[in-house]
Structures are given as C-alpha cells and as structure tokens.
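During the reporting period the student researcher (J.K.) took over the structure-prediction task from the postdoctoral fellow and processed the backlog of single-chain submissions. One of the processed entries is reproduced below for the supervisory committee.
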Amino acid sequence: MPGDGIVQSNSRKPDKALSARFVETVAEPGKYFDGQGLFLRVAKNGSRQWVQRITIRGKRCELGLGSPPAVTLAMARKVALENRGQAMLGGDPLAEKRKVREGMTFADAVDRYLAAKLSEFRNEKHRKQWRSTLDNYAVPKLGPKLVSEISVQDVLRVLEPIWQDKTETASRLRGRIENVLSWATVAGHRTGDNPARWRGNLSETLPKPAKVAKSGNQPALALGDVSAWWADLSEREGMAAQALRFLTMTAARSGEVRGMTWDELDLGDAATPATSATRGGVWTIPASRMKNGRPHRVPLTAEAVALLEALPRLDGSPYVFFAPKGGMLSDMSISAVMRRMQAAKEKTGEAGYLDPVNKRPAVPHGLRSTFRQWAAERGYPRDMAEIALAHFIGSEVERAYQRSDMLDRRRDMMAAWARVLEGGEDPVRIVRMNGVS
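J.K. obtained the following structure tokens:
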C-alpha cells in the first residue's frame, strides 16, 4: 500500500500533498490526490495519467493533463492552477483545449515543445541530440500527421527499423516522442493514452532494450585484420579519417574524440626520453564529457602527438577535429569512413573487415572491443585495460581506495598498441605475464 500519508480512492482533500518521488515509484492502482482537484490515476496495467476535477460554469468535469514522467508533478500543478483560475473567472479551459486541438501536426509539436524545453538543458550536446534524433527519425514519418491521430502503429513505424541495430538511440527516441506527445496532450492538442508510452504499451511489442543490447554488441575488427585495416585507413584523407585514426590509437569513444578541444591537450615533448611522465602528451577529458561522469586522462603516444601536431587549426573553432563549418564532427561522418572502406573491399570481391563472430562489418565503437581483446590476450592487467576504456573498476569502496589511474603504465600499453597498428608485431600473440598466459 502507498505510504507517506497520501490518501487514495475518492478523497477530495489529501492529508499530504504528493511528492515527486512518490509519483515516480507508485505502482498500485488507484487515485492519488494532490490539490486544486489534481490527482494521479494509476491503472491496473501500470499506466499513469494526471487528471483534474474541476467545475466549469456550474458543471463538474474531468480534464486529462498528460502522463508522468513526461509531465512532471510540478508541470501538472501549474496547469491545474491555471485551469482553476480560468474557470473562476468564467472561462472554459475544456473548450479552450478543444479549440486548439485541431491542426497541430507532430512537426509543429516538436518545434513548440523544444522551444520551451531545450533551455533547461545545460549541456549543448544534449540539446543537439534531442533535436537531431527527432528530426532524423521521427519527423520524416510523423511530421505531417496530426498529433491527435498518432497511434501506436505510427510510433512503431519509427522505432522498429532501428530498434535492433541502434537500440540506445531508438530507446532515447521513444522517450522523446513520448515527451512531445505528452506536451501536446497537456496543451490540449490530443487526448487519451500516449502511444509512445513504454510500460504496458510498446513493451508488449518491442524487446527490452537491455536484452537487445546484450545480444547485439557493436561489430568489432578482427585482430588478424588490424594492421591491414590501419594501412587502408592511413591512405585516406579528410578530418573524419584523422579522427578515426586518433580514436583507434586511444581506444576512446567517438563522442569523446569529436568533442575534444585544444585546451584539453598537453602535447608535452614526445622526443624527451626522460621519465615516463614526460614522454608524449596527455589528453584530459573533463567529467562533463565523460559517460561515467568522471574526468579521464588519456596518455598520448608519440604517434598520437604527431597526428595532432599535423592537424590544421580553424580560427574561431575550439575543436581539434572540426566540421567544415567549424562545429563538432558528426558521429555519422566517422562511421561513414569505415563504411566506405568496407564498400571498397566488397567492390573488389573481398569480404572486407568483418566481426569474426557475427560477420557484420566493423564499426568505430567496435574498435574498443578489438583493443580490449588484444590487451587481454597480451596479458595486460584487467584493471589497467578497463581504465584505458574509462570503465568503472570494482565496487564504490574499491574505487575509493584505487586512486591511481596507472597513467605511466597505460602509456607503455598504448605504445605497444600503436606498434600493432603499424604491423610491428603479431596482434594475436599471447605472452606470459606473471605466470598467466
């Protein structure tokens, strides 16, 4: 049973107002009241909807105000208060909702929603991702359609083509479509359940993202193909090709490389043979740009430093690997380099650069798996390899005591990886280290 002293069923006045935490976690069917006639209705299938009981010109009625989490408790309270004020002044908020419901297309709803919401995101990257995912995948199929007519099948037409291959993107896209449609409901442009809702809705048709992700690892480059692939890449020109080379040298994520700015770099002196701490350079990625939310240091080998020093710089652009107009390179531009390399091989009748397990063409993110496999087969300590990939190591307690990021030792490991890329040693040779092969 729900706690926190919150009254359910048909009570008109709650003992205690709802809390944001309660709204997020409540699962038991019922009606949970807040104030201003506002209550949260939880159905048996788990769906939730904000409803306001209100008297309009002497007639008692109920207004739907959307569903959590897209419509937060604070948003629902604000709309409920506005509706009550309008009704007290003789207005009809229900009629207003009916009036504006006609003619709102999904494309218009996206523009209106983003105009109001994007300012809440502090991170410029998140603002661009919100707009780009909706524009690239949802608007082409849903854009001209009235939000009042969008169905579950319409949403599935958007999601199904990318659910298996781009699961994380598709999952985020679903949530963003849900938010846009929830806004449209609160604004009076549609009624009823949200067709993009996951629980008890799309969850009955699409496989869970976690299960798809586990069975759909990003295609990696076979260790035996590493040096040939690297030689092929080295012959290609362009900023995206250089970014892909640097990504491979450092085993970094695409977003980390594409967002890299010159002020994150200390190129040091690669020719200095003094202590390991002064060999090569260091790339320090701030916590705000890391997936795990923690700053990360990347040791730069002599080869990586040479690549960076040879790059042109664009006045007015902070990015190391900049797009033609000075902004950040898109993820698609780096992926396109690998697709072109694969297409060139297939054109000559060769299989190309395929993942040895799933036989799919390798992709940029899969290069991290290739590096991790190499490090394991070469006998490098697990923790050191995981730190190189900016993964969390052990429990929170273990991380609290493990303060070292093994920068110097990782520098030597990345130098060995650079030799593998250049074909200087057998990438699949397993050496004995500490008695373990």
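The committee noted the following: Strands lie at 30-35, 38-42, 48-56, 59-64, 265-269, 280-285, 296-300.
J.K. will present the remaining backlog at the next meeting.
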